[in-house]
């Protein structure tokens, strides 16, 4: 939607009178209906079936921590729904489950990622980085023996069934080193099939050519021993890595040049010249991302200007839409005026039109070469509405005014009409001028009821991703910046571009650090606004 | 609806947007019709024929502003409608408004294998509807507990909800991406790239955004209704599903429709979760379509935009009526 979903700080209606009997006694005193019981058992059965399936897979993958969490959660859910009483838990559990996983956990996880170097080239553990480095630098051993090969398949996984030069049949997959198996052999002694696996014929081989050529099946558990690869699908050769990993010294040795790459402490192996082996792995970097954000000149400058623009954008958006909306509410708050209904319906249309489409429509209207504004309204001018840093800022505020003024118009109309007429009548009788009546009586009263909505509108615009990203993409880009930041980027679009942007590489750690920054700002704003409103006091 | 000047409608739209106004609007309605009064505070005794300058000073200038605002508000919408009916197909051709009316763009929209518009449309509808239904269900359960039951941690729970809704889910987009790719390794059915996974993520935001709205509405339903049912021997589940849910139907509809509209426009999480064009939503698909070659694809995009806006705008207008009906009907006679 183009504006906030309100309700953030609504004054609560009067509390319901205290209940006569507690919920627990009530549940126990009434027998549940059979139908309700059956539905409950069926639903719980489905949940448990999914949970057991999940836990089964987790055991297979040896993810013990997640398995333990899943088991505990499943037990808790069953206890909640099978035990009599605990009525609040029965009603809260489903929503809280989703809230916990996809909102609260996600916040915590963002916090964790902000302290890592997670991103392109630092995606996984050190063990898998070592395996990848070896696999990436495999070259064929010049005097490799020939292994006769049958490519086999099981549940979508390809494997190598090979006959080694001694005539022994071996089976392995990229994840499972070669092991001896009892295979059926053809007349030449070549192993051709093995129980549980499907042997690929010539046609299958052709169809999966690309996949088969990329397979490398390790010879043993030690990756330094090398792996089997096949150029043609019928014979396999031993490939070893130029880089040999030495576990004792935790380093890679380049067998061709003799260079040594050691774990430099930054999540990658580096040599003396500073060259890193790709990929690296994920490590905890402490406050380094935050440090970079605040001290590295290439990032600090853009971050500062983006933060300032975020505030400016959010404040100006709220101010401009509120002023226009209030003005219109006053203009149309005239009893004698005809046709107000038509004006209202049409003025609400921008609010009803999906927000992302509005931004895209204005993308066309503002187009420098062919857009309606330049071509028709300005008679063929070539004004860079979206590509000049300041004009782009103006254009964004203009579009947001179009998007947001109906909402402000509606709430201001509602608030104006709820102010008792007696107040302004009394003031008029006492001799107040119309403008004084508005300024001293109506406006303060209006602000009381509208202020919470202005705050939530600010919070919404602070993270108004769709408008900025779809209209300008944050551009025009600041080419000197060390991150992909532009003149109209707000913090949330910066997070998105740093994390998922093309061109500069993904840096989840830095993006999460920026996200934490937004968290802190929004939290500060909401704490201050909570103090200002009475929402908290009225919680009963 | 006793107000003779038809000024109520704005207030009612305001109510649907804002429960805060709802309270005051409800009391406003119950008051007797006001004295005839113009905005600047002067009371007019009767209505009589006036001279033009007098009319303009009182009302005419309002119409002038009204007409300006009509143009301002409706122009982009008329423009996109006109562009969608323009057979030349480009941005330049769209500058002559309503010169030709031709539906070929709407036909071509459905004939592009690279941009499966029909699939996007269907995906958006399905994801929006399922998310809306789930959101309503989860939110109603929680709102019922907070409104009707008294338990330790209730106040803290309500406070937590107030706080959580300050933090939109898209702030955690990086963590959501990594979480879903991790889940996808274990359960490919709900991992990255699946619509079911996307729906699960959206449901995570269900409690945060809407429970508070529902909680306020649940509190307006008298507890005496629950208690009467309890005395008659109804179980808590019967009270909830059989009685309370029906009485709060208006707010369920509002939350469901708000959730649908929100999901329909959601871009960030959908764009990182769904990469295969066949599984994408309208927001993701149309954005990529038009951002690549804005000028050349303009008319087809416009046709897509008009079609996509229809369900949302229709729901929006429907929503207003529903809320007015729901609030005035009342539950206790």
From TrEMBL, chain A:
Cell membrane recorded as keyword: yes
GO MF, any single term: ABC-type maltose transporter activity
Any matching Pfam family: TM_PBP2_N
Name this protein carries in UniProt: Maltose/maltodextrin transport system permease protein
Main location: membrane
Family: Belongs to the binding-protein-dependent transport system permease family. MalFG subfamily.
Segments forming domain ABC transmembrane type-1: 307-529
Keyword annotations: Cell membrane, Membrane, Sugar transport, Transmembrane, Transmembrane helix, Transport
Stretches for region Disordered: 1-25
Transmembrane segments annotated in the record for this chain: 37-58, 64-82, 91-115, 308-333, 345-370, 390-410, 443-462, 508-530
Organism per entry: Microcella alkalica
Keyword Nuclease: no
Protein's membrane topology: Multi-pass membrane protein
Localization of this protein: Cell membrane
Function as written in the Swiss-Prot or TrEMBL entry: Part of the ABC transporter complex MalEFGK involved in maltose/maltodextrin import. Probably responsible for the translocation of the substrate across the membrane.
Superkingdom of this protein's organism: Bacteria
Matches recorded under InterPro entries: MalF_N, MetI-like, MetI-like_sf, TM_PBP2_N
Single GO cellular component term: maltose transport complex
Gene Ontology terms describing biological process: maltodextrin transmembrane transport
From TrEMBL, chain B:
Gene3D superfamilies, per the entry: MetI-like
Residue ranges of the TM segments: 60-81, 120-146, 158-179, 199-218, 239-261, 298-319
InterPro entries noted in UniProt: BP-dep_ABC_trans_perm, MetI-like, MetI-like_sf
GO MF annotation terms: ABC-type maltose transporter activity
Gene Ontology CC, one term: plasma membrane
Coiled coil stretches, renumbered: none
The UniProt record lists the keyword Cell membrane: yes
Domain spans labelled ABC transmembrane type-1: 121-319
Protein's membrane topology: Multi-pass membrane protein
Assigned keywords, A-Z: Cell membrane, Membrane, Sugar transport, Transmembrane, Transmembrane helix, Transport
Subcellular location: Cell membrane
UniProt-listed SUPFAM superfamilies: MetI-like (SSF161098)
Main location as per UniProt: membrane
Any Pfam family the entry gives: BPD_transp_1
rRNA-binding keyword on record: no
Biological process, per Gene Ontology: maltodextrin transmembrane transport
Family: Belongs to the binding-protein-dependent transport system permease family. MalFG subfamily.
UniProt name for this protein: Arabinogalactan oligomer/maltooligosaccharide transport system permease protein
Natural source organism: Microcella alkalica
